[in-house]
Amino acid sequence: MAVCVAVIAKENYPLYIRSVPTENELKFHYMVHTSLDVVDEKISAMGKALVDQRELYLGLLYPTEDYKVYGYVTNSKVKFVMVVDSSNTALRDNEIRSMFRKLHNSYTDVMCNPFYNPGDRIQSRAFDSMVTSMMIQVC
Amino acid sequence: MSRPAPRKPEYHKINKDLFVLTYGALVAQLCKDYEKDEDVNTYLDKMGYGIGTRLVEDFLARSCVGRCHSYSEITDIIAQVAFKMYLGITPSVTCNNSSRNEFSLILDKNPLVEFVEELPAGRSSLCYCNLLCGIIRGALEMVHLAADVTFLQDRLKGDSVTEIGITFLKKLDEKKYRRKK
What we know:
The complex is a heterodimer. Chain A is α+β, with helices and mostly antiparallel strands. Helices cover 41% and strands 24% of the residues of chain A. Chain A contains 4 helices and 5 strands. In chain A, strands 2-1-5-4-3 form a 5-stranded antiparallel sheet. In chain A, strand 3 (57-63) and strand 4 form a beta hairpin. The mean pLDDT of chain A is 84. Chain B is of the alpha+beta class. Chain B contains 4 helices and 4 strands, in the order H-H-H-E-E-H-E-E. Chain B is globular and about 55 Å long. The termini of chain B are far apart. The model of chain B has no long low-confidence stretch (mean pLDDT 86). Chains A and B meet through loops of A and helix 1 of B. Chain B: One of its GO terms (biological process) is Golgi vesicle transport. Chain B: This is Trafficking protein particle complex subunit. Chain B: Keywords: Endoplasmic reticulum, ER-Golgi transport, Golgi apparatus, Lipoprotein, Palmitate, Transport. Chain B: Homodimer. Component of the multisubunit TRAPP (transport protein particle) complex, which includes at least TRAPPC2, TRAPPC2L, TRAPPC3, TRAPPC3L, TRAPPC4, TRAPPC5, TRAPPC8, TRAPPC9, TRAPPC10, TRAPPC11 and TRAPPC12. Chain B: Belongs to the TRAPP small subunits family. BET3 subfamily.
């Protein structure tokens, strides 16, 4: 369902990035990189309002002809970016929200690992398998 | 009403995540301080020993277990009462040898390792829960039983279950209730 999933740290470097068709990996990396600008714009637009659960989800960041990019930012300014195939029109907003929530939960489990130093690349098997389950095409 | 009622177990609850994260931070800090796994294991065991010598008083006050007559009874009480009281799990007990002084506690669920997926690279012989071994050893020593407690199997190292082996050595203090004449 998702074609590329990325976790970006507060300082805007990637903690985890993975895409499914591995040939055009660079293109997806570039898309995620450009989407960071849109994320920053949306965060600053929210201003000093109290951030609650609904506003963590940023929604559609920008559509391209083949793909749509969605964003989600946590209170600790860690960003999750997901690229999905445009042809998959059955994907509803709720499903994207639930995928981000699963990502967020897995991320907190990774953070709770006492041997993980915040800022390191994410190398957890459980996180990998959760992302794989999100990426498997449900035809 | 001459005898005071046994102390009711007052369970002051704290958040399990806080406890698990605190233990994880302790092990992570020890790993930063000591390079060799054996050193980390030894210090965890020593710390556990200090905890166990104190914890056993609290345990005996709260649980009011009677006198045990055999090593297998002691191991059963450790598994079914002590572990349940402090960690909320009940490991199963098996006896390993015919002379009935070697037992194993098999933990299918260990709350201390909830967030740890695997041991970090270069720490493959770290016994993450060695504190538990020290606690059991310290507690048994305070009731005058010398025992050797180690991890026989560990899920974090790739085994299928986590197994703590308790080997009872000879009693430290023989019962001497007769007055020396």
